[in-house]
Design goal:
heterodimer, A: alpha/beta, six-stranded mixed sheet, two-stranded antiparallel ribbon, 8 helices, B: alpha+beta, Beta Polymerase, domain 2, 2 domains, three-stranded antiparallel sheet
Chain lengths: 235, 522
């Protein structure tokens, strides 16, 4: 009775368009070259080496960026500003039309298995947030399976710690082909902030063929949904 | 007893020891290896100190530190000795010291003398037994070799006819982190549970050693994503303690707002998980919906859904204008009202109570001997909260009431305490906002730490008590960073909680603890 009353009173709580613009989200930084004095302060303050200055030119790799915004706050000339475009996902390494056709088969139902290989658990938190009533990812046919046998693809978070590598491979090979691999979070790209760790060796793309990479530290549910839409051709 | 009184009394019991006070509430006792066990017995038996952690650092020699805390009077005691190639096990007096010793043994290669359990903790079977990554001669850019020469991990075996084992993990059914559980079951009830972790060991402590102090907040926030802000705060407090600086009262109050927001969304997710695990879907969905709304408030405040980059040593990582105060309070107020309605509805449901009441109980004696912290400890009657005993930020003004606690130590108690703490956090946020009357301007000062200094800092994270130790080397680089994370001590509590429960109740117990694998493994 109280459930029915609460339901009637608060009506629908699911957001209609989950990938609408979000002016508070983090996006890649923008560098104003006219103000830059090439003082190297941003490169020194970058933990992951996303910003580097080589031959008098600033290189910014958004895939490595953890969006800590230290470069913005330490730049003496205010030449770096933040943007709010979270739509950073990219399909990787599938030039053949065959693979693309496969993705469109999953348009109506796509079952994922999540494997954490060493993330800080913020990514896991965001993945489980996909299932809440605000985003409700299941209305787009994306669900999380309890067994790799029922899954069409795995979504991997975190760098691959050597204690987890074996379990990751076992999960991957337990799935039926074609196995889709989604790399979720900056750590899956060259191991992110943990790349200097002694028990983090190869990155995910060296172990498994990655189809989709979702950058972000952690990627917000919006960013993950955008990535999945990109894969399933739902945009 | 004040720390000076403690030292006076201690000198009457144990003669000829060097004692030094640093950073106002840390007493360092220097001793030699043969005397360690005697002094440990005096500290725990005569002075009622509780064992917190044991760790090692290398500065020409291996120095073992045994940390004790006074949970009544709020000071730390560090017993320090040079290890002569081996560690004297403390497990006969303090059983829970075992995992700390095994960790030291794995990473520094010191043998443990006087204990039955010397299985590798961090090193899984594929490691090289003769490599010790935390030693200084192990270069920080190196990776470990995979030699597969670590002996197989032997789980407790079942004897008799009816017993059997259920292995679960490391990859679980659902969106959670990896860990292996080995249930020994006789009929329906669980006879024994053994948890094997460290699947996610990445070597964060070693990564910290290769970065200078200005960069460390980035990795601190990524030890455990769920308590990012609390880790950043622990680091900020440590740096401010070592430099002898304090931040303005506004920033202190604002930090409280941030860590309490973190507590609210985590506890909302925890109790949503408890409801999911007993298939009570409506409140479960609503709690996680409310948690999502809190995440969005966090995003508006700090541009990060996990409150990252907001807490910076000696300053503030973000701007905050006091005109935004009311919008945040209004939004939170709506959430809390809705939360009250749904949580009342939940505890009035008979089917809910039937599952959670008297499930997964831990007695107070067990809790004390396991060294539990956080909500798990408070649920079994241990009145201990870092915010009250070792106050930081503005908690000495806020936390004037009794520490909320309950007695039975079951799932229901943990659920109720989490609900209570959400209201308490909301109150703290309101009171802290009252103290913020000036706009907070973003300042990210450079940090310069003097060479060869050391400091401990403590913070109550979402999971419990976090102890952070920082020791500086030369040129603004750390020599050793050590975390005693709340999950590291609390995981053993779960093994006790599920005994004599049935296997289907395990997820429920697990979710009511909701420990972080990431901060345990590091």
């Amino acid at each position: 009775m109280r459930i029915a009353w609460d339901r009637l009173k608060n009506k629908k709580e699911t957001v209609k368009n989950p990938i609408s613009d979000n002016k508070y989200a983090f996006g890649p930084v923008k560098i104003d070259y006219s103000n830059c004095s090439y003082c190297n302060s941003c490169a020194e303050n970058c933990f992951t080496g996303a910003i580097s200055i080589e031959n008098g030119k600033i290189e910014y790799d958004v895939n490595k960026c953890v969006f800590c915004r230290r470069c913005i706050s330490t730049c003496p000339n205010q030449a770096i500003t933040a943007t709010h475009d979270y739509k950073l996902s990219q399909l990787i390494d599938n030039p053949d039309e065959m693979r693309k056709k496969i993705f469109s088969i999953y348009k109506r139902s796509f079952v994922l298995r999540s494997v954490d290989c060493g993330s800080c658990n913020a990514c896991m938190s965001e993945l489980s947030a996909l299932n809440n009533t605000y985003y409700d990812i299941s209305r787009y046919g994306v669900t999380f399976a309890a067994s790799p046998r029922h899954a069409d693809g795995i979504i991997v978070t975190g760098p691959v710690a050597i204690n987890m590598k074996h379990a990751l491979l076992k999960t991957y090979y337990a799935m039926a082909e074609p196995r889709i691999v989604i790399a979720c979070g900056t750590c899956t790209y060259e191991n992110g902030v943990y790349k200097d760790g002694y028990s983090v060796k190869e990155s995910l793309s060296e172990i498994l063929p990655v189809d989709l990479f979702i950058p972000g530290c952690p990627p917000s549910p919006q960013a993950i949904i955008y990535g999945l839409f990109l894969l399933l051709e739902k945009l | 007893m004040h720390i000076e009184d403690f030292i006076r009394e201690f000198k009457k019991v144990v003669f000829n020891t060097d004692i030094e006070i640093k950073n106002s509430n840390e007493a360092y006792i220097y001793t030699i290896q043969p005397e360690v066990r005697y002094i440990v017995a005096r500290l725990t038996d005569d002075f009622g100190l509780s064992f917190m952690s044991e760790f090692c650092f290398e500065e020409n020699v291996f120095v073992i530190n045994v940390v004790f805390s006074s949970r009544k009077d709020g000071f730390l005691v560090v017993l320090r000795y040079n290890a002569d190639g081996y560690i004297d096990s403390l497990t006969q007096d303090i059983p829970r010291a075992g995992i700390y010793e095994r960790e030291i043994s794995d990473l520094y290669g010191l043998k443990i003398i006087g204990t039955s359990d010397t299985r590798c903790l961090v090193k899984h079977e594929n490691w090289d037994l003769n490599e010790f990554p935390l030693r200084k001669d192990f270069d920080s850019s190196r990776k470990i070799n995979e030699k597969n020469n670590v002996p197989n991990y032997i789980f407790e075996s079942v004897k008799g006819e009816d017993g059997f084992q259920i292995p679960v993990g490391p990859v679980h059914a659902g969106i959670i982190e990896p860990g292996h559980f080995r249930f020994t079951v006789c009929g329906e009830p669980i006879d024994n549970l053994e948890i094997r972790l460290m699947y996610k060991h990445r070597g964060i402590e070693k990564i910290c050693e290769s970065k200078n102090f200005n960069l460390l907040p980035v990795i601190m926030e990524r030890v455990s994503g769920e308590s990012s802000a609390a880790y950043a705060l622990a680091y900020a407090l440590a740096i401010e303690k070592i430099m002898g600086k304090t931040v303005s009262p506004e920033i202190k109050a604002f930090r409280t707002v941030i860590v309490e927001l973190e507590r609210i969304y985590n506890f909302l997710e925890d109790i949503a998980g408890i409801c999911t695990d007993i298939a009570f879907s409506y409140p479960s969905k609503k709690f996680s919906y409310l948690s999502e709304l809190v995440h969005q408030i966090c995003e508006e405040l700090t541009n990060s859904r996990f409150l990252r980059s907001a807490i910076i040593p000696n300053g503030s990582g973000i701007d905050f204008a006091i005109v935004d105060k009311d919008t945040v309070i209004n939004k939170l107020d709506k959430i809390i009202k809705r939360f009250k309605y749904i949580s009342d509805m939940t505890v009035q449901s008979v089917s809910f109570l039937d599952r959670v009441e008297r499930t997964g109980c831990i007695s107070m004696e067990e809790g004390v001997s396991l060294g539990l912290t956080g909500v798990v400890a408070r649920a079994c009657g241990i009145r201990y909260d870092v915010r009250k005993i070792f106050p930081y930020n503005n908690y000495n003004k806020l936390f004037v009431h009794e520490i909320p606690s309950m007695e039975l130590g079951g799932v229901y108690e943990r659920f109720q305490l989490k609900v209570k703490e959400i209201f308490q956090s909301y109150e703290f946020i309101l009171k802290s906002f009252e103290e913020i009357n000036v706009d907070i301007v973003k300042t990210v000062p450079q940090i310069k730490i003097p060479d060869h200094t050391e400091v401990f800092s403590m913070v109550e994270t979402v999971k419990g008590e976090l102890l952070l130790y920082i020791r500086s080397a030369k040129n603004n680089y750390p020599c050793r960073v050590y975390f005693k994370t709340p999950s590291f001590s609390n995981w053993s509590g779960l093994e006790y909680a599920v005994r004599k429960e049935i296997v289907p109740d395990f997820p429920l117990c697990n979710k009511s603890f909701n420990m972080s694998y990431s901060e345990n493994d590091r």
